[in-house]
């Protein structure tokens, strides 16, 4: 019986020779789907690899995995020399577009490498995930599980993903189980959430202002151009979560968060008006000092979380915190610091350093110099 089935199948497959390339690929895909229905491995996506036109395959918007340029080049060479040995994992959305769950870089090579694209005729090999695993939460979890077995992660994007899952009512236990994290790691990622806009600017180590609005695109590690691979390794970021002397609190405990520190607008005031108030407030050392006294005494959780982080610009945080405490103006308008004269800036820095050391001393920690308070380690900020 087995031999007869195989013989009939071979005879049937001979008729495929009369089809043009496009029809042939579509026919093979459909045949594979039918075979998949009878397979003892029909619950395994890899049992039914489909060849899909590359323009129907799109990257997802949450993948935190990154590959350094040399490894990316090696992947391109491997695919060109050895072919695709692993399919891209994807799901099919309502618009009949396939979104990548795993294989973002294999997807890029298939689209961007001329040699690879020619070899696979403008198609990509896809393993389609099970229908019952198509919710965004499940797709995110699948991506992270694939990624955590290899590669680097953008911590900022990982924290966004954890927050997204929490918004979808996933508790820490479920996140831990699905993503392979321990609960301490989840806690630290939650603590990072919401801080990207504050500490992302490259000049933050010596200034309290930022030019332009920070958007999600500022944190993409990988470009869409193969020629840009050599530039991508400059974008890898690390975080300061391993310092045993650091104190962590989740954001809902931060007094600064409750006071509107991370708001992006100020009701009833324009950007220019807010920045002018910033300048006026910080140019008054006496008023600034009096407010800092309140901050270091009343914002217990915020001060513990931020002022124990030796890798960040604690001088800048104190200035922004005092401004928020006194006026309600959020840190996004810190550009007002640049409106001050150099003398005024230096005076404000000295006041902030005085109260930073006052807090450190009161909490049995070593006092720091101005350079140590600045830290100048933006890449290690979290």
Describe what you observe in this structure.
With 382 residues, this protein is an alpha/beta fold. The chain folds into 3 domains: 15-136, Alpha-Beta Complex (Conserved hypothetical protein from pyrococcus furiosus pfu- 392566-001, ParB domain); 140-201; 206-380, no CATH class. 49% of the residues lie in helices and 7% in strands. It contains 18 helices and 7 strands. It has helices at residues 2-13, 21-38, 69-82, 104-112, 114-119, 136-148, 155-167, 172-179, 183-192, 196-199, 229-232, 255-258, 271-282, 285-298, 300-307, 314-327, 342-362, 370-374, and strands spanning 49-53, 57-58, 65-66, 88-92, 98-102, 123-128, 152-153. Strands 1-6-4-5-2 form a 5-stranded mixed beta sheet. A two-stranded antiparallel sheet has the order 3-7. A hairpin with a 5-residue loop joins strand 4 and strand 5 (98-102). Helix 3 packs across helix 4 and helix 16 (314-327) packs across helix 17 (342-362). The longest helix has 21 residues, at 342-362. It is elongated.
């Amino acid at each position: 019986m087995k031999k007869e089935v195989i013989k009939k199948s071979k005879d049937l497959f001979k008729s495929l020779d009369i089809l043009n390339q496009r029809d042939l690929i579509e026919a093979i895909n459909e045949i594979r789907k039918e075979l998949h229905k009878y397979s003892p491995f029909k619950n395994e996506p890899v049992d039914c690899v489909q060849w899909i036109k590359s323009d129907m395959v799109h990257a997802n918007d949450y993948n935190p995995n990154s590959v350094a340029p040399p490894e990316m080049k090696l992947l391109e060479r491997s695919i060109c020399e050895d072919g695709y040995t692993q399919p891209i994992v994807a799901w099919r959305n309502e618009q009949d577009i396939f979104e990548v769950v795993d294989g973002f870089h294999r997807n890029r090579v298939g689209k961007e490498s001329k040699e690879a694209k020619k070899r696979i005729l403008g198609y990509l090999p896809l393993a389609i995930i099970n229908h019952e695993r198509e919710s965004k939460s499940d797709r995110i979890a699948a991506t992270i599980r694939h990624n955590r077995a290899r590669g680097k992660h953008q911590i900022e994007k990982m924290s966004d993903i954890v927050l997204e899952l929490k918004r979808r009512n996933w508790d820490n236990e479920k996140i831990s189980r699905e993503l392979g994290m321990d609960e301490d790691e989840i806690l630290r990622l939650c603590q990072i959430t919401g801080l990207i806009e504050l500490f992302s600017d490259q000049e933050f180590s010596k200034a309290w202002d930022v030019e332009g609005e920070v958007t999600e695109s500022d944190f993409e590690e990988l470009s869409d151009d193969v020629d840009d691979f050599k530039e991508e390794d400059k974008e890898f970021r690390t975080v300061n979560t391993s310092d045993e002397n650091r104190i962590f609190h989740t954001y809902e405990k931060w007094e600064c968060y409750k006071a509107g520190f991370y708001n992006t607008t100020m009701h009833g005031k324009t950007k220019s008006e807010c920045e002018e108030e910033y300048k006026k407030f910080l140019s008054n050392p006496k008023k600034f000092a009096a407010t800092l006294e309140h901050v270091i005494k009343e914002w217990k959780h915020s001060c513990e979380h931020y002022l124990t982080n030796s890798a960040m610009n604690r001088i800048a945080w104190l200035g922004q915190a005092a401004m928020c405490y006194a006026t309600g103006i959020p840190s996004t308008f810190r550009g007002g610091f640049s409106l001050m004269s150099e003398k005024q800036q230096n005076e404000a820095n000295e006041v902030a350093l005085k109260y930073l050391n006052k807090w450190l001393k009161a909490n049995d920690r070593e006092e720091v110099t101005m350079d140590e308070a600045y830290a100048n380690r933006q890449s290690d900020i979290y």
